[in-house]
Design a protein that fits this description.
3 helices, 2 domains, Rossmann fold, 5-stranded mixed β-sheet
């Protein structure tokens, strides 16, 4: 842990556990603590302490430089967006987190604060926006554009040239036809076929 830098996670639910597992496989970061609900303070998630709630973000930003939003997104992206706006005003670092078990083409681009989970694939010339979750085993093919604040859920397939609008959710196992455009704030159910 000598050369690792501290990072604070914001969100102490189920998705946080998956984020922890990714970070534990990275050489660059160690988890300094988690921001959760007021009643979660002092509890532990996989051995890491909940050290504060949203009201402590300004104080934490004075002590830590790097943060990641580990709050999940299924029914609505709004909470993640609100936290994103609040934390970016504090001028902290929001690093891209990529599991070493994922594949990201060197010709792809991933925006700040996004995470690529285990066994996901981001192919050549694909673009992923800010504060986006590319979940376990998801596939983002060549030339696809995933806008900011999206969640591409487990084993979803975003085929070549697809555009996913901002703040959209693509459910587990959903498949998009090549070249389709999905409007912002869409909710694509699990196992859907998007033509």
């Amino acid at each position: 842990m000598m050369n690792r830098k501290p990072i604070v996670l914001i969100g102490a639910g189920g998705h946080c556990k998956s984020v922890i597992d990714v970070i534990e496989h990275l050489d660059e970061w160690f988890i300094a603590g988690i921001v959760g609900l007021p009643e979660e303070r002092g509890s532990k998630i996989l051995g890491y302490e909940v050290i504060g709630d949203d009201n402590d973000l300004e104080l934490l930003a004075a002590n830590y430089n790097s943060f990641h939003i580990s709050l999940g997104f299924i029914s609505s992206p709004q909470k993640r967006i609100d936290i994103w706006k609040k934390i970016t005003l504090l001028k902290v670092n929001m690093p891209v987190l990529i599991s070493p078990r994922a594949y990201v083409s060197r010709h792809a681009h991933i925006g700040a604060g996004s995470i690529v989970m285990h066994y996901a694939v981001i192919n050549a010339a694909a673009t992923v926006g800010e504060n986006t979750i590319i979940n376990t085993r998801a596939l983002v093919e060549h030339d696809a554009v995933i806008s900011s604040h999206c969640h591409i859920a487990t084993a979803a397939v975003i085929n070549g040239g697809v555009t996913v609008g901002e703040a959209s959710f693509v459910g587990s196992g959903a498949i998009t036809r090549q070249g389709v455009s999905i409007p912002g704030r869409s909710f694509i159910k699990a196992n859907s076929l998007v033509k």
